Amino acid sequence: MGKIIVGISGASGIVLGLRALQMLRQAGVETHLVMSKSAELTLHHELSMSADELKAEADVVYPVKNVGAAIASGSFITDGMLIAPCSVRTMSEIATGVTSTLLTRAADVVLKERRRLVMMVRETPLHTGHLRTMTALSEMGAVIAPPVPAFYTGAETLDEFVTQSVGRTLDLFGISDTPIRRWQG
Q1: Full-prediction pTM beyond 0.85?
Q2: Is 146 in contact with 173 (CB distance < 8 Å)?
Q3: Distance from chain centroid for Cα 169
Q4: What is the pLDDT of residues 67-108, one digit of tens each?
Q5: Calpha distance 60→15 (Å, rounded)
Q6: Which of 76, 125, 140, 180 is the most buried (most CB within 10 A)?
Q7: Listed residue (122, 171, 128, 113) closest to 147, CA to CA
Q8: How far apart are CA 20 and CA 10, in angstroms?
Q9: What is the per-residue pLDDT across 20-36, written as a single tens digit (0 to 9) for each?
Q10: Residue 183: CB atoms within 10 Å
């Protein structure tokens, strides 16, 4: 298969990015990871692993301040970018085009090149400004895909909910050979 950029921002839900990296590896997709500094801080509160252990799940890792990295250029061909989880701050930077890190610059490039950008936005409740920002991003071509549990699957653990949510986002890239439960009617 191709290449997908995985962005991990500082929103709660770091396990979403980790699971995405794991599932993409299983699907044979090359991953290019960029994590925000806030993501590294959140990681220590949510998972019992180091940033180096998480980064080892990716094929290529870029420092968030390296705005000259390959993924900052439209000439670097990818199948798109998944931001999991995506903080409201990250979402807002991308929506305005005023990007301050490699994570938001890479997302901006994905949009300008008309590639798939999927954002697992982690925030609730949402105020009108958040909703307007999401609408603007959707109008630019991004897919807003909050990690909403699919209760019809009968999942009993958080791990099952995470796998289902991430698997559904990977469907948006045409990666459907994942261990998720599909509605059978």
Answers
A1: yes
A2: no
A3: 9
A4: 999 999 999 999 999 999 999 999 999 999 999 999 999 999
A5: 19
A6: 180
A7: 122
A8: 16
A9: 999 999 999 999 999 99
A10: 7
CA distance 173 to 154: 25
Degrees to nearest 5, angle at CA 110 with 130 and 41:
60
d(CA 82, CA 16): 10
* Six-digit token string for 166: 């991430």
Pick the CATH number of 3-171 from 3.40.630.40, 3.40.50.1950, 3.40.50.1700, 3.40.718.10: 3.40.50.1950
**71 contacts 107 by C-beta, under 8 angstroms:** no
Distance between CA atoms of 88 and 67, rounded to whole angstroms? 21
Residue 82 and residue 120 in contact, taking contact as beta carbons nearer than 8 Å: yes
Q: Which DSSP letter does residue 29 get?
A: -
Q: Domain-by-domain residue ranges, the chain?
A: 3-171
Nearest Cα to Cα of residue 29 among 69, 10, 1: 1
